[in-house]
Each structure stands twice: as structure tokens, then as C-alpha cells.
Amino acid sequence: MAQEIHITNTGSPDLLPLREVYVAAVAGILTADIWKTYPLTQVANAYQALESRTAMGPTVLRPE
């Protein structure tokens, strides 16, 4: 069963220390649900999807 960690804000006493978050990330426990990844050359398309609210989640630009 996958374990999930949600970080929603900073300064809260119930947040995990950064070291624990790092360990979880390295272990592959943390995941990110990315809606779409665009190459950097398509930054205009990514921006348009965000601006028009057609993006259904996090959008990532990646260098080529």
C-alpha cells in the first residue's frame, strides 16, 4: 500500500521535518500527479492551457 504525504503550507507543527520529506522522496514514496509536460519550446501552449483553465492539474515545462 502506498503511503502519501501531503504538504499544504509552511510553519504548521504537524508538518514533517524536511529531512523526512527528503528521505521519502529518495525512497520513491512521494509522487507528483502531473497533468501535462511541455517542452520549453512550447511555453506559449502551456501558458495558454493555464490561462484558459483547460489544464486539469500541475503543468511542467522541461528543458530540451
UniProtKB/TrEMBL annotation:
<protein>
    <recommendedName>
        <fullName>Alcohol dehydrogenase</fullName>
    </recommendedName>
</protein>
